[in-house]
Amino acid sequence: MSTETHDVTKGTGRVITRFGAELLVRCDDKSTIRCAPKRKLENIACGDWVDWQSNPTGIARVDKIHKRKNAITRLTYRGKPRTIAANVDQLLIVSAWLPEPFWDLVDRYIIAAEQLGAEATIVINKQDLAEQYAKQEGWRALADYEKIGYKVLHVNTKDSTGIDALKETMSGKTNILLGRSGVGKSSIANKIMPEAAILTAEISESGEGRHTTTTADLYDLADDGYLIDSPGVRDYMPDNLDPIKLANGYIEFQPYLNSCRFSNCTHNHEPQCSVRQAVEEGEISTSRYERYLDALNNL
């Protein structure tokens, strides 16, 4: 009687997609392995770093999720949070001159970046329409963002204007694209993708073909840059804001937050509010402050 022995391989990798109960992991050697997580790791998501080990009689198993830098979650139809992407470094907030920019939404995405501890870059698409559709209010809003430290890039996917600068900004980071419908997120992704190594080509070698349903996909953009993309990711919006999180999301408020008379100041009507005084003295943009008040009233 003979006993067969099988070598078990272990490694570390990054989840590049999830389909049902299984997922694909990109290994250190750039190969891709099909895995299934332990039951207790059901919340695993695209972008997670994991430890895996092979299974001689079946697909590999994920044993551990590394500590996350952050996680993007959405509520399920049952009202429970579900992680759809993890370890994001930069939010690319896409707007355009047509449809008309919605600066309240841009502010909301910036707040999301601050909550995640991620960078925020504002991308204005359809640069060719600026002369016809851009308004002074829009140029002032962009100047306000740049003044407080946010990068603003102008691109045009029709002639690739600004695409190289966008790729440079994405280099070395895990990125996601955000923005309202019609601003050109898909066009920008398609401009970036042709040079990308799409890591989710095949689920297996058994003829099962490409997966059709997934939470998100991780694309390798070279120069150690990545894009996590899916309709669910593109439409992400933080849904757990309170007055404190909202105020902390306005980075120009931060030097003044501890100087207000009241520790629970909402920077709206309270006396001796340092934030409101900074607005009156021109240290904080009046437009940004007014949009903050609108957001506060809608919490």
From TrEMBL:
Domain of life: Bacteria
Amino acids binding Zn(2+): C260, C265, H267, C273
GO MF: GTP binding; GTPase activity; metal ion binding; rRNA binding
Cofactor binding, per record: Binds 1 zinc ion per subunit.
Cofactors: Zn(2+)
Entry's Gene Ontology BP terms: ribosomal small subunit biogenesis
Residue stretches making up the CP-type G domain: 69-236
InterPro entries: G_CP_dom (IPR030378), NA-bd_OB-fold (IPR012340), P-loop_NTPase (IPR027417), Ribosome_biogen_GTPase_RsgA (IPR004881), RsgA_GTPase_dom (IPR010914)
Principal location class: cytoplasm
Keywords from the UniProt entry: Cytoplasm, GTP-binding, Hydrolase, Metal-binding, Nucleotide-binding, Ribosome biogenesis, RNA-binding, rRNA-binding, Zinc
HAMAP family the UniProt entry points to: GTPase_RsgA
Binding partners and assembly: Monomer. Associates with 30S ribosomal subunit, binds 16S rRNA.
Protein family membership: Belongs to the TRAFAC class YlqF/YawG GTPase family. RsgA subfamily.
NCBIfam families linked: ribosome small subunit-dependent GTPase A (TIGR00157)
Protein name: Small ribosomal subunit biogenesis GTPase RsgA
Source organism (scientific name): Leucothrix pacifica
